[in-house]
Design goal:
This protein is α/β, with parallel strands linked by helices and about 475 residues long. It has helices at about 45-60, 90-100, 115-120, 135-140, 155, 165-175, 185-195, 210-220, 240-250, 265-270, 270-290, 310-330, 350-360, 380-390, 410-420, and strands at about 35-40, 65-70, 80, 85, 105, 130, 150, 175-180, 200-205, 230-235, 255-260, 295-305, 335-340, 345, 365, 375, 375, 400, 405-410, 430, 455, 460-465.
């Protein structure tokens, strides 16, 4: 949906799940010993080919591929690696009944959350569902039984990374040196991961969180493969200008990706000075040092909470956005920009991990308001678009990521309960606790949505310019 149309629409993305999550099923028998499990594969594309081949190669006595469904008319009736295409997605209920299906495996999650939600709506409660992780597993040829996993919230809301994004980023990152502030955080660490898979020259990680930096380095050092970027990590805080300058003196930097920030709205209401010191003054420090050390490209990671802010956190991030525009105007030979987006799934302290913790402990799921909505995207997708925004940005722009439709938090809570095989309001209560200080019922994406322009890339928009 075009972002310009959203000012006239509050259509909520309501994912209705009707199946039970089977967290113990791993393409193994769920019933009587020796019983074959009839598996229906969704998707007759490359991943479908590969997963069928792997199942047959393993000669699993407990798995029988009953057939495939795919919406491509040209594939109807065809046989793929010995498995027949039995119908389209809408035929799933009939096929499940006729073929006595025990398990559904989606081999094409990369088509996005709406597709996964469509499949899950068609499944009876007792039929578990599994997915392949992403299109990247297909691109890399890593499609085997170990990659099959349970469905999770990102399959229902998130949209995929695509091969063209990864190639585009790799081409532009080649030979460049990057400094990532907040490099151990949810967004910062994913920026580092994606750059580490590129032909960048070097990556400098800056964060004050010692444990997070250590864990990230351990993860990266465990990756194998030639021609990885050189990586160096420093413990430091963007509020400490002298420390950041020491780091910048050690090596030439081409691009600063500034992800360091305080982000929790209610917590920052109680600590307003700390929010301003990190989110506003920390950004000013980084911009000053970018100018002083000749760093041509600077990207601020911003938030939808900076639009018409009602919170200390939002005000501090809006101030940071305005700083980027001020410095861009003063330094026309640089490329200073900000990238604004909404919530990301499974980031530290976010709503989804909180809901999951409550559900698994059989506690009541708490929401602040029944009508509250938020924009969501997966962390890998957000970072891929952030890096793409860096590539296409012009000096002084505030770029906006296409967040899709807002998600109603009540629906999200209900769906998360259901994929655990539990009944909302019966097995797990849902309680409203009231809106917290600084919160909005609905977030906004731009101060004036009528002025939003399409960028040169489909999922990135220009919200503001010099």
């Amino acid at each position: 949906m075009n972002l310009k149309d959203k000012k006239n629409s509050r259509a909520h993305h309501k994912v209705k799940l009707s199946h039970q999550l089977d967290t113990s099923f791993d393409l193994q028998s769920r019933g009587t010993k020796g019983k074959k499990n009839n598996v229906l594969i969704v998707g007759a594309g490359l991943a479908g080919h590969q997963i069928i081949r792997e199942i047959k190669k393993d000669r699993r006595p407990d798995v029988l591929i009953a057939g495939i469904v795919d919406d491509d008319e040209k594939k109807q009736g065809r046989t793929i690696n010995g498995a027949q295409v039995l119908g389209t997605i809408d035929d799933i209920p009939r096929i499940i009944q006729e073929k006595k299906i025990d398990q559904v495996l989606i081999s094409t999650p990369s088509v996005g959350g709406a597709f996964v939600a469509r499949v899950t709506r068609l499944l009876p409660l007792h039929i578990p569902i599994k997915v392949l992780p992403s299109i990247s597993s297909v691109i890399l040829g890593k499609v085997d039984l170990s990659y099959v996993r349970d469905i999770d919230p990102s399959d229902l809301i998130g949209r995929p990374l695509v091969k063209s994004d990864q190639q585009f980023i790799s081409k532009k990152a080649k030979g460049k040196s990057f400094l990532v502030t907040g490099g151990a955080g949810s967004i910062g660490s994913e920026i580092v991961r994606q750059l580490y898979d590129s032909p960048a020259k070097s990556i400098i990680v800056v964060d004050s969180w010692e444990e997070g930096v250590f864990n990230l380095l351990e993860e990266l050092h465990a990756k194998h493969g030639a021609h990885r970027p050189k990586i160096k990590a420093f413990i430091g805080n963007v509020r400490d200008k002298k420390r950041i300058e020491e780091i910048l003196k050690l090596t030439r930097v081409d691009v600063i990706l500034h992800a360091a920030a305080y982000k929790h709205v209610p917590l920052m209401e109680d600590n307003p000075d700390e929010a301003r010191k990190t989110n506003y003054l920390g950004t000013k420090n980084m911009l000053d040092l970018a100018v002083a050390h000749g760093v041509k490209d600077f990207v601020l990671i911003s938030t939808d909470k900076a639009v018409n802010p009602t919170s200390v956190m939002g005000e501090s991030k809006r101030g940071a956005e305005l700083l980027v525009k001020i410095y861009a105007k003063k330094n026309p030979n640089h490329r200073f920009c900000a990238v604004r987006f909404g919530n990301v799934l499974n980031s530290s302290g976010s709503i989804v991990p909180k809901f999951l913790k409550q559900i698994r402990s059989r506690s009541a799921v708490t929401i602040t308001h029944a009508e509250m909505t938020r924009y969501f995207m997966s962390i890998p997708e957000a970072v891929s678009l952030v890096l793409s925004s860096w590539i296409i940005s012009k000096n002084g722009q505030i770029l906006l990521l296409d967040m899709g439709e807002p998600v109603k938090i009540m629906d999200l809570a209900i769906n998360l309960i259901r994929i655990h095989g539990l009944e909302p309001h019966k097995d797990i209560l849902i309680k409203e606790t009231g809106i917290r200080p600084g919160e909005k019922i609905h977030e906004e994406l731009a101060h004036d949505e009528s002025n939003i322009k399409q960028s040169s890339l489909e999922r990135i928009f220009i919200a503001e310019e010099l």
